[in-house]
Amino acid sequence: AIRIAVLISGNGSNLQAILDACQAGEINGEVVAVVSNKADVYGLTRAEEAGVPALVVAPQAGESREDYDARLDAELSQLNVDLVVLAGFMRILSEGFVNRFAGRMLNIHPSLLPKYTGLNTHQRALDAGDEEHGCSVHFVTPELDGGPVILQAKVPVFEGDDADDLAERVHTQEHRIYPLVVKWFAQGRLTMTDGKALFNGEVLPVAGYA
Ligand code: GAR
């Protein structure tokens, strides 16, 4: 079983989906730590309820991004982590940190990448009049939300939707595709080579197999 660290900043519903899939034996892996950059978030309670060590690595006043990431790295290194899963972790990570975990770090982003990197993706999809929206799981590279996509799920945009409606519809899909991708990683089927995501050694088309 692989050793997984999940990094969060909030509610942790994607964390929960991954914990449940490990518990069910769906993912051949164990979440060995949940790390939050914020104290008092519900995701930490979810970790405790699942019996997983939960720790807060809070940024200190005036601390550089590199210094913060070095402290994060120190925690993860101690835990011998095989995979870092970003699940609503709302900090940008430095190039050095990202490169250290190249091919071993995943993120989920609430848009159909390459559309809408960054924040407020649901409102931006609405403002653009998009008829579909969704979420993407990708390997993390130094370019923000720019790493190669592994799997996407699409949702329709209905007339009268607001950002909360869309967020809820997208979340439901996130909870399907993120555990699936982590399962594939734990099976050794996913690699990143030359900035491309490979599934069983073959380059993945965007919007793969969900
Ligand atoms: C998810 O929708 C995830 O895609 C998004 O934050 C939410 C976290 O929800 N991530 C980002 O926006 C990353 N920039 P959760 O805490 O309930 O898993």
The radius of gyration is: 16 Å
Tally the beta strands: 10
Q: Which ions and ligands are bound to the chains? A: glycinamide ribonucleotide
- What percent of residues are in strands? 25-35%
Q: Which parts are unreliable, with pLDDT below 50 for 5 consecutive residues or more?
A: none
N-to-C SSE series? EHEHEHEHEHEEHEEE
Q: How are the strands of the biggest sheet laid out side by side? A: 3-2-1-4-5-6-7
- Spatial separation of the terminal alpha carbons: 23 Å
Shape: globular
Largest sheet: 7 strands, mixed
What is the helical fraction, as a range of percent?
25-40%
Count of helical stretches: 6
Helix-and-strand structural type: alpha/beta
Summed over residues and divided by their number, the pLDDT gives a mean of 96
Provide tags for this entry.
Formyl_transf_N; binds glycinamide ribonucleotide; alpha/beta; EC 2.1.2.2; 3-stranded antiparallel sheet; GART; phosphoribosylglycinamide formyltransferase activity; 6 helices; Phosphoribosylglycinamide formyltransferase
Can you characterise this structure?
(6R)-10-formyltetrahydrofolate binds at residues 65, 90-93, 107. The protein has 210 residues and is α/β, with parallel strands linked by helices. Helices cover 33% and strands 25% of the residues. It has helices spanning 13-23, 42-49, 65-78, 95-100, 121-127, 163-186; strands at residues 2-8, 29-36, 54-56, 83-86, 105-109, 132-139, 149-156, 190-193, 196-199, 202-203. The strands form two sheets. Strands 3-2-1-4-5-6-7 form a seven-stranded mixed sheet, covered by helices on one side. The protein has a three-stranded antiparallel sheet with strand order 8-9-10. The longest helix is centred in the C-terminal third of the chain and has 24 residues, at 163-186. The protein starts with a strand and ends in a 7-residue tail after the last strand. The relative contact order is 0.15. The model has no long low-confidence stretch (mean pLDDT 96). It binds glycinamide ribonucleotide. Glycinamide ribonucleotide binds at residues 8, 10-14, 43, 87-88, 108-110, 135, 171, 174.
